[in-house]
Amino acid sequence: MAIAATISLSLPPQTRRFSATPFRSTSSLHFNSLRRSFSLANPSFRVSAASMSIGTPEKISTTSFLDRRECGFLHFVKYHGLGNDFILVDNRDSTEPRIKPEQAVKLCDRNFGVGADGVIFAMPGIKGTDYTMRIFNSDGSEPEMCGNGVRCFARFIAELENLQGKHSFTVHTGAGLIVPEIQDDGKVKVDMGEPILKASDVPTKLPANKDQSVVKSDLIVDGVVWNVTCVSMGNPHCVTFGTKGSQNLIVDELNLASIGPKFEHHEMFPARTNTEFVEVFSRSHLKMRVWERGAGATLACGTGACAVVVAAVLEGRAGRSCTVDLPGGPLGIEWREEDNHVYMTGPAEVVFYGSVPL
């Protein structure tokens, strides 16, 4: 469907205008006479749609769109990886992000902005890498890395550089070197590097109970004892398969909005933490739900899926190659014994193209 609309929002404090161009269309219906206006209680924001059309659009030149450099405008492409969605910005001409964290918060707002789990900047490479990736979460915080985000980043770079077929490149992140590889089928395979297991490096204040690691350790949350394993994939993760003495966790029964923040802000995690709740179907099939640090409940978390497989291996619950089901769909995760690296394979898709004045 092609939907043409204008959204005015404060970024900040003046009224701004936002326009979005969908990536593709499958409908031939037309509604040319639809006219609506909306007034909201928030005086810094209004939505108006003078006309809206749903139909087959003229061919969109993505190359010309991405080449736009009008002064004062932020051009972006929205991508998602299994529903974990991001606003991608071409920032290759500067080592400083084009917008501030507080602007990212407004853009990510799902009611008053574009709507996303974060804003990702494609920046010049440093330390010999091809590119640098930085992210602002929807709350304005900056994580070290994001697994689903790096797959979206790889597809974005391929579009910017007009790359066809199988390609790989090096990306500098806050978690270190990441190497995504676009596959022939369009999925992205990412070498996520080695998991960090030393408790002080995750970081967690929980005492190490297996070498220098925290594996199936007790963590009291809201008066309940949970068994947790702590893993860093460049960002901290607390992985749990259930409460102490319980049988297999049924993740769909969790009140994630209630329990998630209590893990994230627990005193045992000085940098806060991402938390994965895991259900085991077999030694090669796991299911997880995630509460992300700085983003809350999301449909997918790539680093979280990697941490889940590492934790499952450490606890003896699964083998080194697993399918991990997330609310947004499955990811393939492999923790290779020969190089100790974790590899993640999954999709990344364009949602739409847009522009917003700065």
Characterization of the model:
By secondary structure, this protein is mainly beta. 14% of the residues lie in helices and 38% in strands. It is built from 5 helices and 22 strands. The protein has helices spanning 62-66, 101-108, 147-160, 256-264, 302-314, and strands at residues 6-10, 15-22, 36-38, 46-49, 73-81, 84-90, 118-124, 131-137, 167-168, 171-173, 176-182, 188-191, 217-221, 224-232, 236-243, 274-282, 285-292, 296-298, 321-326, 329-335, 342-346, 349-357. The chain has a 22-stranded mixed β-sheet that branches. The longest helix is centred in the middle third of the chain and has 14 residues, at 147-160. It is globular. The chain starts with 5 loop residues before the first strand and ends with a strand.
Summarize this structure as a short list of keywords or feature phrases.
globular, 5 helices, 38% strand, single chain, 358 residues, disordered N terminus, mainly beta, 22 strands
Q: Strands, helices and their partners?
A:
Layout: E1 6-10, E2 15-22, E3 36-38, E4 46-49, H1 62-66, E5 73-81, E6 84-90, H2 101-108, E7 118-124, E8 131-137, H3 147-160, E9 167-168, E10 171-173, E11 176-182, E12 188-191, E13 217-221, E14 224-232, E15 236-243, H4 256-264, E16 274-282, E17 285-292, E18 296-298, H5 302-314, E19 321-326, E20 329-335, E21 342-346, E22 349-357
Parallel strand pairs: 6-7, 8-10, 15-16, 17-19
Antiparallel strand pairs: 1-2, 1-4, 2-22, 3-4, 5-6, 5-22, 7-8, 9-11, 10-11, 11-12, 12-21, 13-14, 14-15, 16-17, 17-18, 19-20, 20-21
